[in-house]
Design a protein that fits this description.
By secondary structure, this protein is mainly α. The protein is about 65% helix and about 0% strand. It has one domain (about 5-90). The protein contains four helices and no strands. The longest helix has 29 residues, at about 45-70.
């Protein structure tokens, strides 16, 4: 069962999305202003290349960060991974065998 304070990650999702995607928005505004006004800055090409690299990282990292935030960093997922690692190392944290004589019950 998820703890109630873990839902705080939904409140900060917009901040994550904004920080990963802001460089593309800045590049778009810079390119639009350059085309519409004809103003050509001395540093435009250098700044555009830097923002391009940041944008290429941010666009691809968006899905990875969302997956980590909502799937991997959940407490039940971390507890499951911790249990699997402990079983592989030979430590059974809960003291119960992996297989027992009880019949599995499926709830649909």
């Amino acid at each position: 069962m998820e703890r109630p304070n873990e839902d705080i990650r939904f409140l900060f999702l917009w901040l994550l999305e904004l920080s990963l995607r802001i460089s593309g928005t800045i590049r778009f505004i810079m390119g639009t202003l350059r085309r519409q006004t004809g103003y050509d800055s001395v540093y435009y090409d250098k700044v555009d290349i830097v923002l391009l690299h940041i944008q290429s990282f941010g666009d691809s990292a968006q899905a990875l960060c969302s997956c980590m935030l909502f799937c991997i960093l959940r407490s039940n997922t971390l507890h499951f991974v911790k249990g699997v690692i402990n079983r592989l190392r030979g430590k059974n944290e809960e003291g119960t065998p992996l297989l027992n004589d009880q019949v599995a019950t499926y709830i649909f």
